[in-house]
Design brief:
With about 250 residues, the protein is α/β, with parallel strands linked by helices. The chain contains 8 helices and 7 strands, in the order E-H-E-H-E-H-E-H-E-H-E-H-H-H-E. It has helices spanning about 10-25, 35-50, 65-80, 105-130, 155-175, 195-200, 200-210, 220-230, and strands at about 1-5, 25-30, 55, 85-90, 130-140, 180-185, 240-245.
């Protein structure tokens, strides 16, 4: 039995990651920010695959609520999985997209991106470290935008770049516990991220496809299936790495 905690697992990439992990035999705890209905729908899909699943509310940006979330998580773990179980895989996936040029980014936007993509995942991970099994895994979600640049995503990419640095340090510091820590960097994926522009705007979709070696934009399962493969025992020697999943965008 292995247990994965996937933040932002009620939709988009998080949903695909959770479902693909369940197909590999992981029990799933997924978090959602506001839509409990969507989260419970994912829970039902996972249970239909024969795995246990639970959803918990979490706004990762509200770091003053993280301690309370961890308390609830421990209660759920004990209730559903028995005495003092450990998390085997943490996927820090929850996120948003804000498109704003550097010259026009407000302090409110800057802080929101920082809290969701850097501060929140950092302190959530820190609080969860005692409850992650030795030999477990942490996967942090970054972005192809840390390698190539598109107008309007400078601050977003900066926060993702920071999480890539933190990933390497965590990999080094957690090595004694045999916990691996890696970064997944998706490209443009057809989800509701950023208002669903890539999914719904044909011009944007065509542009991204034209910049991608494989000639199309990504789909959620392109990432979810890859994450499940990376989380398998076959990749245990991978550590402290940035794995880009963009289909070859802007090579």
């Amino acid at each position: 039995m292995k247990i994965a905690l996937v933040t932002g697992g009620s939709r988009g990439l998080g949903k695909s990651i959770a479902l693909n992990l369940a197909k590999k035999g992981y029990d799933i705890i997924l978090t959602y920010k506001s839509s409990q209905t969507e989260a419970e729908n994912v829970v039902r899909e996972i249970t239909q695959l024969g795995c246990k699943a639970v959803s918990l509310q979490l706004d990762v940006a509200q770091t003053d609520t993280l301690a309370n979330f961890v308390e609830k998580l421990l209660l759920v773990l004990n209730d559903r999985w028995g005495t003092s179980p450990k998390i085997n895989l943490l996927v820090n996936n929850a996120g948003i997209g804000i498109n704003a040029a550097c010259a026009e980014t407000t302090e409110v936007q800057f802080d929101e991106l920082m809290n969701i993509h850097l501060k929140g995942p950092f302190f959530l991970t820190q609080m969860l470290l005692p409850y992650i099994a030795d030999g477990g895994e942490i996967l942090n979600l970054s972005s192809g935008l840390t390698r190539f640049s598109l107008p309007g995503y400078g601050v977003y990419a900066a926060m993702k770049g920071a999480i890539e640095v933190i990933t390497r340090y965590l990999a080094l510091e957690l090595g004694e516990r045999k916990i691996t820590v890696n970064t997944i960097a998706p490209g443009g994926i057809e989800t509701d991220f950023g208002g669903g522009a890539l999914r719904d705007n044909q011009d944007i979709n065509a542009y991204v496809a034209s910049q991608t070696a494989l000639g199309r934009t990504g789909l959620p399962d392109d990432i979810g299936a890859a994450v499940a493969a990376i989380a398998s025992d076959d990749c245990r020697w991978m550590n402290g790495q940035r794995i880009e999943l963009t289909g070859g965008m802007r090579l």
